[in-house]
């Protein structure tokens, strides 16, 4: 099982389309973002409910209606999206196994249980570093890498596809 859900991946892809970079638009409907990626509208709506509650998107009105980024893509980190979709969840949940050694009987000695478990300490450090990496990556950075990788025509096709659907 993945620590970070597939919802985070889908949310990031949706948000990339809203970066207003060459590969995106300034706003789009949940229906269009769902169909663009072959997802159910209900599923994408649930993702956007979480993104909106976290202050990452705003609802828009008008011909396009739907959602837009609540702040510039440079100020939305991957960690923001992970926390919005998956909520705060630890990488590791220590079970204090060290206190249950059969040799100890009913009471583990203080030396065995004092301080942070050495295994838990490693996991705390891993979680800290993972969060630092996710916080250092922005939606704008992801969009720039996407733009650099795809053919130039792809970006225009995406914008045109969303524009045509908004006009109909």
Structural write-up:
The protein is mostly helical and 168 residues long. It has one domain (6-167): Orthogonal Bundle (Arc Repressor Mutant, subunit A). The protein has eight helices and two strands; from the N terminus they run H-H-H-E-E-H-H-H-H-H. Helix 1 packs across helix 3 (41-53), helix 1 crosses helix 4 and helix 2 packs across helix 3 (41-53). It starts with 5 loop residues before the first helix and ends with a helix.
Structure at a glance:
The two termini are 41 Å apart. By secondary structure, this protein is mainly α.
List the helices and strands and how they pair.
Layout lengths: L5 H12 L12 H8 L3 H13 L3 E4 L5 E4 L8 H9 L23 H4 L4 H19 L2 H11 L2 H16 L1
Antiparallel strand pairs: 1-2
List the strand order in the largest sheet.
1-2
Strand element count: 2
- What are the low-pLDDT stretches, counting only 5+ consecutive residues below 50? none
CATH architectural group: Orthogonal Bundle
Counting DSSP H or I runs of 4 or more residues, the number of helices is 8
Classification by helices and strands = mainly alpha
Helix content: 40-55%
Kindly list the characteristics that best describe this protein:
two-stranded antiparallel sheet, 168 residues, mainly alpha, Arc Repressor Mutant, subunit A, elongated
């Amino acid at each position: 099982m993945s620590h970070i859900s597939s919802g985070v991946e889908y949310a990031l892809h949706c948000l990339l389309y809203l970066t207003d970079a060459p590969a995106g638009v300034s706003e789009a409907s949940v229906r269009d973002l769902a169909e663009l990626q072959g997802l159910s509208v209900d599923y994408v709506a649930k993702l956007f409910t979480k993104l909106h509650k976290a202050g990452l998107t705003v609802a828009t009105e008008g011909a396009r209606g739907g959602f837009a980024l609540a702040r510039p893509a440079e100020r939305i980190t991957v960690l923001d999206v992970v926390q919005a979709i998956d909520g705060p969840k630890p990488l590791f949940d220590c079970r204090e196994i060290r206190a249950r050694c059969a040799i100890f009987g009913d009471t583990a000695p203080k030396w065995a249980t004092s301080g942070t478990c050495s295994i838990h300490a490693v996991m705390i450090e891993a979680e800290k570093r993972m969060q630092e990496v996710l916080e250092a990556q922005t939606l704008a950075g992801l969009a720039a890498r996407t733009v650099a990788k795809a053919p130039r025509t792809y970006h225009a096709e995406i914008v045109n596809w969303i524009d045509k659907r908004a006009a109909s």
